[in-house]
Amino acid sequence: MLEVPKVSGDSLSLIVVTDAEEGPDFLKRAEKLMGETLTRRAQALRDFRRKLAMVEEFTPKVDDDRFLLRFLRARKFNVEKAYKLMCNFYKVRLQNPTLYVPVGMGPRDFAQLYDLQCGTILKHRNPRDGTAVIICRFGKWRPSTGHGPLDIYTPAVYAGELVMDLPEVQLNGFTVIIDLQGLEYSWLIRYVTPDYISQMLGFAQESYPLSIKKVHIVNQSYLWNIGFAIGKSFVPPKLRNRYYLHGSNMASLHEYIPREILPEEYGGLTGPLDFWFLPELYAMHDRIVENSYYGYDV
Span of the secretion signal (predicted)? Predict the structure, then answer.
């Protein structure tokens, strides 16, 4: 049993992959944040299934309440908006069927990308806002790996399957730490183009049932700061205030995410960064492959 450290009186919440229980006062918090009540949830699920039953252009997954609630909670139980989000979610594959969540494939087929150790999920949610914390280490990527920046989409989507069904994650969303240590500016200019930025933002905002509450950028260079200032024009105004630049100042990061849940690479107290989620993710391979057959025909 993993010991849970204390954080100034706040209780740490351990992400348990198989635990889909709602935390204390969940309904009270859910009603305040998105107008969710037991009655509205049940009615929205019925209405959503009824609408999906009339779909002819793609095959939706409708047999799992937790899956449907991803979309309903992401759009505050507006069934029409949840339906549009699901359509966009499945349409991503149409842009490149061999690159984006390909049919008949799962996490084990992308082991070489996970071996790059470019990302992980922290074991604990942030006790200050309840978000699940994702670390993206773009500086670990090299052009010499033979993989392009867009190749990370499918492995990231698979990793999200570990926590996307958890009610607390659906309610509170995600915090993202982007670590740019080791990322060459020349690679940034060549590979992270406006088109790439546009695609990634489009996927995150319009095509995935994911609520990103904050993005913390660390270990970035001065030149990157200049590029970011220019690139902000591609970010909708609503999202601009969710980005925080920390450089190498981890004390600044700790104002938002406590040291007690961070690995030592970010001034934390949980030991070296680990990739604990991979065995759990690989164990879900068959289920993810089965789910890959839903959506639009390709």
Answer: none
CA distance 183 to 181: 6
Tokens at 86, concatenated = 């699901």
Q: Please state which CATH class domain 108-283 belongs to.
A: alpha beta
- Could you tell me the residue ranges of all domains in the chain? 23-101+287-291, 108-283
CB 89 within 8 A of CB 207: yes
What does pLDDT average to in each consecutive run of 10 residues of the chain (298 residues)? 39 52 86 95 98 94 95 96 95 90 96 94 90 89 82 91 91 92 75 63 77 90 76 71 91 96 95 94 96 89
Domain 23-101+287-291 CATH assignment equals 1.10.8.20: yes
